[in-house]
Amino acid sequence: MYTTKQNNTAVGNIKLFGNVRVLIIAALLTALSGAVGKVLSIDVMPFARIGIENLPIVMAGIWFGPFVGGAVGFGADMFGCLLKGFPPNPVTTLGFVSIGIVSGLVSMYMFRSNKTLSIVLADLAAHIVGSMIIKTIGLYHLFGGQYPITIMFMWRVPLYIGIVIVESAVILLLMKNRAFSEQIDRMCNYGKQRRSS
Known about the structure:
The protein is mainly alpha-helical and 197 residues long. It has a single domain (10-190), classed as Arp2/3 complex 21 kDa subunit ARPC3. It contains eight helices and two strands, in the order H-H-E-E-H-H-H-H-H-H. Strands 1-2 form a two-stranded antiparallel sheet. A hairpin with a 2-residue loop joins strand 1 (42-45) and strand 2 (48-50). Helix 3 (55-64) packs antiparallel against helix 4 (66-84) and helix 3 packs across helix 5 (90-109).
């Protein structure tokens, strides 16, 4: 199946910022999220769109922990706003950051013995906090209360439940590939291996 041998503590995961390989993958995930989110998404309503912009952020949180996940979320929103020419909305940016942080924390501390359940819950919790609550509040204020917040929630909750199903399936398929999961483990442990030799 797959393993995760990285240090599952917050202090252990913040050290990944010093790992060049992790930073390169984090930068690629940031660019992917920003580009895919703003360019390859379908607007269902002005306040709801179908897309996988959060998938790279959730991946970063699950693979590299809450600090790298939060940084990828921040960078992805900034890059996406730059691509579209929008000014960043601080509340929406907080939503993106929280997706990375929550996915990292949940995968790090909950159901560590059952990685499938851990990944699904990490993705779901990240979207409940970041997409369904924080981003909805940010969009409500962005549109100046033009749309009732209850209507926004009614559209966004089922939309993100469907997105969680797709994203979790993609992450699980990647992690069930032994070669892929070994590469993630190798990247996370690269700095430790160099210091010990």
